[in-house]
Specification:
38% strand; globular; 6 strands; SH3 type barrels; 4-stranded antiparallel sheet; two-stranded antiparallel sheet
Length: 88
């Protein structure tokens, strides 16, 4: 039991230490449109829906800057149009 607890605490500590570095590399945005469908790829299949005010971490932008790959706390990960987070 003690060994298991040590592993959990160590894993949590490592994840917490790595998160600030990831957060510094990516920006956090809020969804501005009433709702946006999250797709598995630009112009792909739907994987979820996010709503106005939901916070997302921007992971990547495509070459045209029309699509952004995001991850939410829901947890939903995928692509949305960049206009969904601009202009709040």
């Amino acid at each position: 039991m003690r060994l298991r607890l040590t592993c959990i605490v160590t894993g949590t500590a490592l994840a917490a230490a790595a998160f600030p570095a990831a957060a510094a590399a990516a920006s956090v945005e809020r969804i501005c449109t009433p709702q946006v469908t999250v797709l598995d790829s630009p112009r792909g299949l739907p994987v979820g829906v996010l709503y106005r005010g939901d916070r997302v971490v921007v992971l990547k932008r495509d070459g045209t800057r029309r699509w952004i790959r995001v991850r939410s706390a829901a947890p939903i990960s995928g692509w949305i149009t960049s206009r969904s987070v601009n202009g709040c």
